[in-house]
């Protein structure tokens, strides 16, 4: 893990009057006070990649998933909505489904962390239990709770799974930062799997990103107070994978990085393939975000979640950068 990186959920402990920059500098967390909320492309958009289905068992085209998705322009629920696990506010990444037709949003495992460590180890840290309710909201800020669009339940937590499996790989323990929120059946019709602003994902990136490539993400930190124009992120990948992480992490630099509350946000590579999930912020110049590699996180979940046929759902909208 890159020091002095910080996990970036929005959690209790800081006053609402603090500015976002101060929150980053003091530990990467934000909160609310009692009675308030818990805690652009440089070139014109153009279609660059057509949606497709591959033979990979980890993905499924939206049209082949057996789910009736809401049109992207009308969906109340989509990647990038705010997820509140207790007082911790994070951002959902991608949409997943399984062999039983259940639908899930991904988020960061550290969003359910119970403790005070600034950079906890996933193989030892305590998290909320499976089955914990997770509110999916829009418009939440430090002043308002926003609108609860649905309440799901925590169905998988990579930290708990690694502890149950006795995981010994230090790279997995440091960077496998992934959880799944199962949605109730009655809200699935309001879901669209496309990444806002960018479209896609069109595939799953499996060790195909290179240093210097662009990465595109979408976060919805409550620190922004609903200013969605600041939600799309563009970064540059600094290495194929961080040296010494076994491919589990990618470093991305950006003038406008992900901030506390963007934790868990989904990123795609320059071709629109799902690349990673936002995990940490490192205070360097320029600031660096660490993405946990989604292909490894998903493979681990397939092996340890007990969820049959778990797959990433591709977007209904084409990717454009």
TrEMBL record:
Q: Which PROSITE patterns match?
A: PROKAR_LIPOPROTEIN
- Output the superkingdom of the source species: Bacteria
Q: Could you tell me what this protein is called?
A: Serine protease
Q: Which UniProt keywords apply?
A: Signal
Organism in which the protein naturally occurs: Gordonia asplenii
The stretch of residues making up the signal peptide is: 1-30
């Amino acid at each position: 893990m890159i020091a002095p990186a910080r996990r970036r959920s929005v959690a209790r402990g800081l006053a609402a009057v603090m500015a976002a920059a101060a929150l980053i500098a003091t530990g990467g967390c934000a909160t609310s006070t009692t009675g308030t909320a818990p805690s652009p492309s440089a070139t014109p958009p153009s279609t660059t990649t057509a949606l497709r289905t591959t033979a990979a068992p980890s993905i499924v085209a939206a049209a082949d998933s057996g789910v009736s998705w809401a049109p992207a322009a009308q969906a109340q629920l989509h990647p990038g909505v705010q997820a509140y696990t207790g007082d911790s506010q994070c951002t959902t990444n991608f949409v997943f489904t399984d062999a039983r037709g259940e639908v899930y949003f991904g988020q960061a495992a550290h969003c359910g962390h119970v403790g005070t460590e600034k950079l906890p180890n996933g193989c030892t840290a305590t998290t909320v239990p499976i089955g914990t309710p997770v509110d999916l909201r829009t418009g939440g800020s430090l002043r308002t709770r926003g609108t609860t669009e649905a309440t799901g339940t925590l169905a998988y937590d990579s930290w708990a799974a690694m502890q149950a499996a006795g995981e010994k790989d230090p790279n997995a323990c440091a960077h496998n930062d992934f959880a799944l929120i199962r949605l109730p059946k009655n809200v699935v019709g309001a879901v669209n799997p496309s990444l806002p602003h960018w479209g896609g994902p069109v595939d799953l990136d499996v060790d195909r990103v290179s240093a210097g490539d662009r990465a595109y993400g979408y976060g919805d930190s409550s620190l922004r107070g609903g200013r969605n124009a600041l939600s799309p992120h563009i970064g540059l990948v600094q290495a194929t994978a961080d040296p010494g992480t076994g491919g589990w992490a990618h470093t991305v630099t950006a003038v406008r990085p992900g901030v506390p509350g963007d934790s868990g946000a989904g990123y795609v590579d320059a071709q629109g393939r799902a690349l990673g999930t936002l995990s940490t912020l490192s205070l360097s110049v320029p600031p660096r975000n660490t993405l946990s590699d989604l292909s490894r996180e998903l493979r681990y979940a397939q092996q340890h979640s007990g969820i049959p046929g778990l797959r990433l759902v591709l977007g209904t909208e084409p990717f454009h950068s």
